[in-house]
Prior knowledge:
- The protein is mostly helical.
- It has one domain.
- Helix content is 80%, strand content 0%.
- It has helices at 2-22, 32-46, 53-77, 86-121.
- Helix 1 runs antiparallel to helix 2 (32-46), helix 2 runs antiparallel to helix 3 (53-77) and helix 3 runs antiparallel to helix 4 (86-121).
- The chain is elongated.
Amino acid sequence: MPKISVIFGFLLSVLGLYGYFGMGKVSITALIPLFIGVPIIILGITAFDEKKLKHSMHAASVLVLLGLAGSLFRFIEKRAFENMDGASMILFIMIVICLLFLILAINSFIEARKARKKEQVN
């Protein structure tokens, strides 16, 4: 999961940089994916230390959940599904990236719990 965190953090960071520089929308809000992506990269790198794995991955998941909630709220509030402009597309891509990360993280947490239970039985 640490590698996945770094990859998804990188994707969010690139998305934020593209929204800011690539679309010509010079607004600090265009960098929101970057503000979530960079800490996820840092947490992913931190998670390579086995002692910090659990806490880092839970923290990354909380950050992604906040990113998902915020972007989903903004997408709905803006009625972006009716008018898909560039900013709406960035929001939609962020929603997809965050949702995929959360699905993978939850699956990883479930598998880790199963492995611990199996280890305790043996």
